[in-house]
Amino acid sequence: TINQRLDKDSLIMICDEFNFEVEFAEQYGKDILSSEEKETKKEKLKTRSPVVAVMGHVDHGKTSILDCIRKSNVIADESGGITQHIGAYQVEFHNKKITFIDTPGHEAFTAMRARGADITDIAVIVIAADDGVMPQTIEAIDHAKAADIPLIIAINKIDLPDADPEKVKVQLVKQNVRLQGWGGSVEYVECSAKTGEGIDNLLETILLVAEVEELSARYSGNAEGVVVEAKLDKGKGPVATILVQNGVLKTGDIVICGAQFGKIRLLLDERGQPVPICHPSGVVQILGLNGIPQAGDTLNVVLDEKIARDITSKRQYIIRQRQIASGKGATLDNLFDRIQQSELNVLNVIVKADTDGSVEAICDALQKIQSKEIKVNIVHKAVGGIVEADADLAAASNAIVIGFHVRPNAEARKSAELNKVEIRLYDVIFEAIDDVKKSLEGLLAPVIHEEAIGTAKVKQIFKISKVGVVAGCYVTEGKIINDAPIRLFREEIKIYEGRIASLKRFQNEVKEVHEGQECGIVIENFNDIKVGDIIEAYIKIEERKKIE
Ligand code: GDP
Hints:
Blueprint (H helix, E strand, L loop, with lengths): L7 H10 L18 H4 L5 E3 L3 E6 L5 H12 L14 E6 L2 E6 L4 H9 L7 E7 L6 H12 L4 E6 L8 H10 L12 E4 L8 H15 L2 E3 L5 E10 L3 E10 L2 E2 L3 E4 L2 E9 L8 E2 L4 E7 L8 E5 L2 H24 L3 H9 L4 E9 L2 H13 L5 E10 L4 H10 L1 E6 L5 H10 L3 E4 L2 H15 L3 E18 L3 E14 L3 E6 L2 E13 L2 E2 L2 E3 L3 E6 L10 E10 L5
Parallel strand pairs: 2-4, 2-5, 5-6, 6-7, 17-18, 17-19, 19-20
Antiparallel strand pairs: 1-8, 3-4, 9-10, 9-16, 10-15, 11-14, 12-13, 12-16, 13-15, 21-22, 21-28, 22-26, 22-27, 23-24, 23-28, 24-25, 24-27
Helix pairs in contact: 8-11, 10-13, 11-12
Guanosine-5'-diphosphate binds next to helix 3.
């Protein structure tokens, strides 16, 4: 129908059927925010410093190398070293700057690329000399190759007695990485993050590779950049770390970051100190956004707030529509999955938390607790407080909202109340997970046990007008309860299953009759009772299934 959203593949297929070609806009508003860079003549561009990502197998020393570099090469300042982690920082070496992305690991690197942000110029692949090339080393190499950026191999931990750099080099040949002096041109260094040996050499090599790359940027005009990291700060509000790629970012600029906008109140450097401007390859935190953008979002400076508001509200609308579509499983392949999984119970969840790390940690843990019959489906996850859009989305997708260190604003609360959306707030991750586990257990069909509670033998039959057949019984075992379900057996064969309509002792209605006592039983909608029949009463016990 006209207001139905389609996924990319379906769109292409349909348009193809009508002989049209489809061109997908990367993001709404990109054309409006015309890139000044394209119009800038080459001679106006100036050399900029490289942006470097450090990747490699776990425990091979990525963090240690970054720490080592940071400790000895931070741009000197009276306020001391870098006190906070903001996602990226610049160091100075031989009077030249290098920007390091401080989120080691190729997952973050590729997640950014997936969002259209190719921010890294050079990839440093760290390989421990005692361990050699490992699965994640290969992955990291592949990711860097896919991004088409130069590699530098850092063979680390050469201080260890069992370090064998030569073995690493041989292994690299197998991975089609041909090192300088080994018939190839890939630069490498041997170093130790522990002793500091070779680290200067690594920095020199980075500068050398950067020079070859002839990295350049526009040093005037409106800034363009990328969000490296973003979070909600208790005191400062939404805070985003921006890597400036072109132009000059200034306090007072009106910026669009993905689907958020704002007027920059303050630029803070990696030491938490205010700075007036930021140049290309520089990293700053910006304060003043109205919401939290996502890592990988692009930043653009616009002339007035109206444009910013228009573009971001459309972007938010599109995001919401997409989420609703994905939540409801509107895509074709999804539909098929759903039919196949119709036996499956799904708990839809929206996760909001104060930092990217918490969001990921919660989502990871949630996805791990599914059992065979049950599944947690994360409809949406993001950093930031719970807003109206979250509650709306939850209503549309029948989800619960989990807030970690965040709370709903007034609109969100109203919408949640109106739509009966459950919002749960937590301060401890474990509690959130445990609660969801319990909800999941609630979705599992309970196991129903039956337990016989008593039997009675029919001794005599009375036919009473208006009442029907009353069975005069003797309770042979246990007890008979007036509202218990019963089965009637005749010569060990089940004749009827139903409920007791009336249970009497002498003339009185009673709740229960015990072993050895006589009573009158009327069975609901059943009159064909005979002397010698056995009435068995039982109860149903529901037992909730547990998830391990
Ligand atoms: P990451 O997982 O790649 O970030 O690795 P880490 O930087 O956390 O390092 C993993 C372990 O290796 C830590 O215990 C470090 O102290 C140790 N390590 C890192 N670099 C060196 C090094 O050059 N020499 C030695 N001996 N140990 C190192």
